[in-house]
């Protein structure tokens, strides 16, 4: 059994708005890359059994060498479960030669209504040992901050 990493944030938007941002290609491409990265989605099929492939490029690869190449992380993500507007479960596999990044990591996005909007809790299970827990939790928190900024400024609360 692998490691579990978590992060959460309250976002000032409805669960339906947040859920929509988790399943819209342009939205995901905009908010998912954590600070210091940009993303490009190569394939998009937002349904159970579908998924997407994202290429994350480090803006400064000297500080953070990529898992797939010197400057990139390539991740194939499958949608294991879609429960609108409550939960999205993804299974992520990194494209990497290094066995410390091998395996399937499950990312569960739980959306819980709160008085101030939606509490979004991300739980990553079976995290590959090559991914530092501190870096991973900071990356999830950064993606959540980007998601909050994206939906809160879109005017679609």
UniProtKB/TrEMBL annotation:
Q: Which SUPFAM superfamilies match?
A: Bet v1-like
In terms of domain of life, where is this protein from? Answer: Bacteria
Family matches, as InterPro entries: ASHA1/2-like_C, START-like_dom_sf
Q: Which Gene3D superfamilies match?
A: 3.30.530.20
Q: Name one Pfam family in it.
A: AHSA1
User: Taking every annotated instance into account, which residue ranges of this chain make up the domain Activator of Hsp90 ATPase homologue 1/2-like C-terminal?
Assistant: 13-152
Family stated for the protein in its record? Belongs to the AHA1 family.
Its protein name is Activator of Hsp90 ATPase homologue 1/2-like C-terminal domain-containing protein
Organism of derivation? Rhodococcus wratislaviensis
């Amino acid at each position: 059994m692998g490691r579990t990493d978590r992060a959460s944030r309250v976002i000032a938007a409805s669960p339906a708005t947040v859920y929509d941002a988790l399943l819209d290609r342009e939205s995901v491409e905009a908010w998912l890359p954590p600070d210091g990265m940009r993303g490009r989605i190569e394939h998009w099929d937002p349904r159970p059994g579908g998924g997407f492939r994202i290429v994350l490029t480090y803006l400064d690869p000297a500080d953070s060498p990529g898992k797939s190449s010197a400057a990139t992380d390539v991740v194939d993500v499958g949608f294991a479960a879609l429960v609108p507007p409550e939960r999205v479960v993804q299974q992520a596999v990194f494209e990497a030669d290094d066995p410390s990044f091998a395996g399937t990591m499950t990312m569960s996005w739980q959306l819980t209504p709160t008085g101030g909007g939606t509490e979004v809790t991300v739980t990553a299970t079976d995290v590959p040992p090559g991914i530092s827990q501190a870096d991973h939790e900071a990356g999830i928190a950064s993606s959540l901050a980007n998601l909050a900024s994206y939906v809160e400024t879109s005017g679609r609360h």
